[in-house]
């Protein structure tokens, strides 16, 4: 049966602890210096128990169509997960889509040298596979966590060096270690680092690039992989996984973070989207499928694929350095369906940091030409003349109401969008801080 791997998070809100062209990726080896900017999506293998090869193919085709180059296969210790990873590599065969394993060290033990055998085995198994991501001519390998791993040695650095660099095929190791950036400087077993918690503001403030700058400072030219995420809400009871909090999603988090990545692209080698399918933390951008980690109550009916469409615009800009021209008027809208201060009988309780967010409708409007834009919900109304290109818009949500958006140009409506299900209600059945996401048709 499917088993959910609990990924314990660290107290990051206290301090920092803790479309590329297909032809570019035809070459398995990407030489450093000439390597293109790449974008990955973090993929929870733990949610794929019922998957088959066709499921993987559909996800890869969808991701590739939006400019995503590879899946970071987050793999835990369940004995069935290597089979799903094998299916993923099989599904990718014959395509230009790439894969690499992100070992979930919140799940995989790492106390003894023998604990490293699973990692060594899988790296060797997919070494030089046509769809294995190679970077600087080496197998690209990442992690979620692993800052406590010694693998029977006397230090973190020696432990990872013995597992991935001793008698192994060449590995380019870029883990997400939850530790202070200055500590990265002394870890020569690392070829770079992935800054997981740079995706969200870790307090009640807007997203910024401060974490990126700290990582870049102490990596001293090694590979820097930045993170981007549209949301974070998890709602597990103390009797289950004891995870019940939000990170601040306001001020157009997803769009604003992407804008920072584009602005600072010269200092960023790679970007990983968190995530394709982590339903338990509400930051999925792919379809809701597979096996959920007991998160159905806050994810069912909350499709996030509008964020995937929106990401394509920013992915192109990150890779090329230029925002693409808009080919069609489109509207992207997202927000919660219930007020943050609603009172419910939910026994799990209100999520921590709920006071950090506003009851707001967030949007990005794509326009081919200057137009008038209006959105409404009950007594709330936003109306403005917007320029061609992409514009960010917002509007308070106060009343029981249905969201609607209209684009008018030359007295004609080019978009008349009333997304089904986007109903804001003051009466919340429980504390659901997941986002409802809607995008007008392509």
UniProtKB/TrEMBL annotation:
Highest rank taxon of the organism: Eukaryota
Gene3D superfamilies: Glycosidases (3.20.20.80)
GO terms assigned for molecular function: glucan endo-1,3-alpha-glucosidase activity
InterPro entries linked to this entry: Glyco_hydro_71 (IPR005197)
Keywords for this protein: Hydrolase
One Pfam family named in its UniProt record: Glyco_hydro_71
UniProt name for this protein: Glycoside hydrolase family 71 protein
């Amino acid at each position: 049966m499917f088993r959910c791997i609990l990924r314990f998070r660290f107290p990051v809100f206290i301090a920092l602890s803790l479309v590329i062209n297909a032809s570019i990726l035809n070459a398995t080896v990407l030489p450093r210096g000439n390597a293109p900017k790449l974008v990955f999506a973090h993929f929870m293998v733990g949610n794929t128990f019922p998957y088959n090869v066709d499921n993987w193919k559909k996800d890869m085709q969808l991701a590739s169509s939006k400019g995503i180059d590879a899946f970071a296969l987050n793999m835990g210790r369940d004995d069935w997960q290597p089979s799903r990873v094998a299916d993923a590599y099989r599904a990718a065969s014959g395509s230009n889509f790439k894969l690499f394993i992100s070992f979930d060290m919140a799940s995989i033990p790492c106390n003894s040298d023998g604990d490293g055998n699973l990692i060594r085995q899988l790296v060797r198994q997919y070494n030089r596979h046509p769809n294995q991501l190679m970077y600087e001519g080496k197998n690209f390998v990442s992690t979620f966590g692993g800052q406590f791993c010694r693998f029977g040695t006397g230090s973190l650095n020696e432990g990872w060096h013995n597992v991935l660099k001793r008698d192994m095929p060449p590995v380019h190791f870029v883990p997400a270690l939850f530790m202070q950036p200055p500590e990265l400087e002394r870890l020569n077993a690392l070829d770079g680092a992935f800054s997981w918690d740079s995706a969200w503001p870790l307090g009640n403030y807007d997203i910024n690039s401060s974490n990126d700058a700290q990582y870049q400072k102490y990596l001293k030219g090694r590979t820097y992989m930045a993170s981007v995420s549209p949301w974070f809400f998890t709602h597990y009871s103390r009797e289950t996984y004891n995870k019940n909090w939000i990170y601040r999603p306001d001020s157009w988090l997803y769009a604003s973070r992407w804008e920072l990545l584009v602005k600072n692209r010269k200092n960023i080698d790679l970007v990983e989207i968190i995530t394709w399918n982590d339903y338990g933390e509400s930051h999925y951008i792919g379809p809701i499928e597979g096996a959920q980690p007991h998160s159905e109550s806050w994810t069912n009916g909350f499709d996030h694929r509008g964020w995937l469409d929106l990401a394509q615009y920013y992915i192109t800009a990150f890779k090329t350095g230029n925002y693409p021209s808009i080919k069609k008027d489109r509207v992207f809208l997202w927000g919660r369906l219930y007020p943050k201060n609603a009172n419910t009988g939910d026994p799990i309780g209100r999520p921590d940091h709920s006071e950090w967010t506003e009851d707001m409708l967030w949007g990005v409007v794509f326009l081919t030409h200057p137009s008038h834009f209006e959105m409404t919900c009950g007594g709330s109304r936003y109306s403005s003349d917007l320029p061609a290109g992409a514009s960010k818009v917002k509007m308070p949500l106060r009343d029981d109401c249905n969201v609607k958006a209209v684009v008018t140009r030359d007295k004609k409506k080019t978009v008349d969008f009333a997304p089904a299900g986007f109903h804001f209600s003051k009466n919340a059945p429980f504390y659901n801080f997941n986002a409802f996401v809607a995008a007008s048709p392509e």
